[in-house]
């Protein structure tokens, strides 16, 4: 479904990603982990078209993404839920969700998708007329994920969905993301600091450090790696 091959990205002459390769098959749950500043968010921004690449290739469902602007990539079925939620604070909850439904697939499935979003996050139905900027951090994250689902995505990219949330709220977010994958069949690409929980949900994981992929494999393989155990899982 998604193939990233030898991707390189530079910011102001500094290399943020170097020869990064990653593969996501349809229906998979794939997680990218690594320390702050490793380039995880840059990877997502390059896939969605916010940041230009310096080299390499990205294809999605056979389409060369470098030949398409960001808006056209959304029409292919790529939804990017950014780090820090980035809801439209002066719009209502419902208006935020509607903003995500502008691709044709999202418009066609809008009523079904909205029902599904409200099933996953009932509080969003209760708060539908409330300004998104007045919600708690956890509720804003639910809006951001709902907005991503509103486009009826083939691939849902989630960047640090648990960031800044209380542990109980983060657990709920993880449960809902797992539901979206298992019950709705949406392919998931996740960047997450809560490494143990993220990898446990995954079919395949990648470790990104200082702009380079240093390790990848299924959860069981990564769990046996000393670097992952010590640096990310706190195990000896």
Structure description:
- This protein is an alpha/beta fold and 236 residues long.
- It has helices at residues 40-48, 70-76, 93-100, 104-108, 110-120, 122-126, 137-149, 167-184, 195-201, 219-223, 226-231; strands at residues 2-11, 14-24, 29-33, 55-60, 63-64, 78-81, 155-159, 187-191, 204-209, 212-217.
- Helix 8 (167-184) links the parallel strand 7 (155-159) and strand 8.
Spans of at least 5 consecutive residues whose pLDDT stays below 50 are none
Radius of gyration: 17 Å
Strand content: 25-35%
Strand order, largest beta sheet: 6-7-8-3-9-10
Assembly type of the chains comes to: single chain
- Inertia-based shape: globular
Number of helices: 11
Distance between the termini: 36 Å
Q: Which class do the helix and strand fractions yield?
A: alpha/beta
Helix content: 25-40%
- Note the run of SSEs as H and E: EEEHEEHEHHHHHEHEHEEHH
Largest sheet: 6 strands, mixed
DSSP E strands, number: 10
Mean pLDDT across all amino acids: 94
């Amino acid at each position: 479904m998604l193939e990233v091959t030898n991707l390189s990205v530079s910011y102001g002459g500094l290399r943020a990603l170097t020869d990064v390769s990653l593969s996501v098959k349809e229906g998979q749950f794939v997680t990218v982990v690594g320390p702050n500043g490793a380039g995880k968010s840059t990877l997502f921004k390059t896939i969605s078209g916010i940041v230009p690449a310096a080299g390499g290739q990205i294809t999605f469902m056979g389409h060369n993404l470098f030949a398409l602007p960001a808006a056209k990539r959304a029409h292919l079925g790529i939804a990017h839920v950014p780090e820090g939620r980035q809801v439209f604070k002066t719009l209502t909850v419902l208006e935020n969700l509607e903003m995500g439904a502008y691709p044709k697939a999202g418009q066609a499935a809008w009523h079904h998708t909205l029902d599904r979003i409200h099933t996953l996050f009932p509080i969003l139905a209760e708060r539908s007329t409330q300004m998104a900027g007045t919600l708690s951090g956890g509720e804003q994250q639910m809006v951001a994920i709902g907005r991503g689902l509103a486009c009826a995505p083939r691939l849902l990219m989630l960047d640090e969905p648990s960031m800044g949330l209380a542990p109980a709220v983060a657990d709920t977010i993880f449960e809902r993301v797992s539901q979206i994958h298992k019950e709705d069949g949406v392919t998931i690409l996740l960047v997450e600091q809560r490494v143990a929980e993220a990898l446990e949900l995954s079919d395949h994981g990648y470790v990104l450090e200082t702009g380079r992929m240093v390790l990848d494999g299924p959860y069981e393989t990564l769990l046996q790696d000393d670097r992952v155990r010590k640096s990310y899982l706190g195990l000896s």
